[in-house]
Description:
The protein has 16 helices and no strands.
Amino acid sequence: MPAGIRALAHPNFRRYFAGQAISILGSWIQQVALSWLVYRLTGSAALLGVTAFCGLIPQLLVGPLAGAWIDKHDKRRWLLVVQGLMAVQAFVLAWLTWAAWINPAFIIAMALLLGTLSAFDTPLRQSLIGSFVGSRDDLPNALALNAMLFNAGRFVGPPVAGVLLGLTSEAACFALNGISFLALIVGLLRIRGVPPPRARGSVGEVFREGLRYAWQTWHVRMLILTLIVLNLTASTYAVLLPVFARDVFAGDATTLGWLWGAAGCGAFLSTLFLATRKAGAALVSAVAAGVLISAVSMLLFALGAWLPLALAAMVGLGFGISVCNVGINMILQSSAPDALRGRIVSFFTSARFGFDALGGLLAGFVASSFGAAATLLAEGAVLLLFVLVLFARRQRLREQLSAVREEQ
């Protein structure tokens, strides 16, 4: 296999990759349809923030303990169970919407349910990738390809969702997502191999062991802090996109799909860039540059009222956020001991999605009082200040990761 797709040489990873590609497309179609449904029914930027918060906050509250629980159990078996439950959630949401029973209370309840399931699903999938490729050297490439699927879904899914919303309804989009989960379930059932080792001890003991490692390892602490700041600020753009699409650019669901798709295009390009990189010290500069690009793109998007400029800024924002998030994931998983990988992944997903939830909730309420553009301007300025902190610590990060690589 060429270097950029070398992880696909592993049959188990190919099976996972094919199923995940279809499942992710369905998930993005549902996410866009849900945000449009909320804004169509209520016209409330605050409720957009609440819905995004409920969909992500379980990652922060449940995620760390979920990682300890995951490391004690059969990961592949429980991933199948969780995927089935997520399909049921999508079908129930489709039925409620089709029957015109949907309301803000039901939407929030469905978002909380999906968020809780995702708190187990994400670390389950991420921690299994190492066993699918069976090689630490190919793990960074597998993680980059997995992120490429997610970002390709961001690029293709929102425009498709915009077209589907114009031709059908939100209920149809939710039903399609439910069907898409079957692809990954079939792929997982075809996977054969030795399962990863399980941790011993109580869930509390396993959790404390992972927490000690994360807290006492400086590069892990610094990278988690970077995740928190980035996702508390830059990632909240997604909550406010329906406001920009309708009120700033005088558009509709199709406009929303193009804005979201532009960010997905940038994120997809970032994973093409990362797929040929090796994890470790070399990725530190890419992560720092990603934070800088995110801050500048946020400011350009907030200041512009011309749709082509906004689309270009969305490409830059998607690229910067993805380089940072995926790059940090590659560094953390490649440097973590195999026995601790599930817990390290859960800490990553908690910071990645939990603070995305808190940031989205905050952005929704601030935008209700001061406007969406002013909210993004303020968050972009905060992120720009953090760039100075990160660049000052870049060399220490590189040195520590080089030392870890030599020990391995």
